[in-house]
Specification:
elongated, mainly beta
Length: 94
């Protein structure tokens, strides 16, 4: 069974670190799980990078194992409003 790619907007809390706001890796991973779970598959091993700036236009990748191999969830920050960040997320098999 192959999980279909998922594309949606989601919100995520940010964490202030150093002199700028950064995205919590565990929060980003949680959003990937929510998006991918809509395809009928729930990933359990999502990893996202730390130190990603919470700025519109920032892009980064999270990784997880899907039902038929490795997947990448490409994340793009589309809006920052206080402690909330909106993403455009697209997952695909790598």
């Amino acid at each position: 069974m192959r999980a279909a790619p998922a594309v949606v907007m989601v919100a995520l809390a940010v964490l202030l670190a150093g002199c700028g706001a950064t995205i919590k890796p565990e929060g980003a991973a949680e959003q990937v799980v929510k998006v991918v779970s809509k395809t009928g598959f729930k990933p359990t091993d999502v990893t996202c990078p730390s130190g990603v700036k919470a700025e519109v236009g920032t892009e980064f990748d999270c990784h997880f194992t899907g039902p038929d191999g490795d997947y990448t969830a490409h994340m793009k920050v589309t809006r920052v409003d206080g402690a909330a960040v909106e993403f455009y997320i697209q997952s695909k098999r790598t």
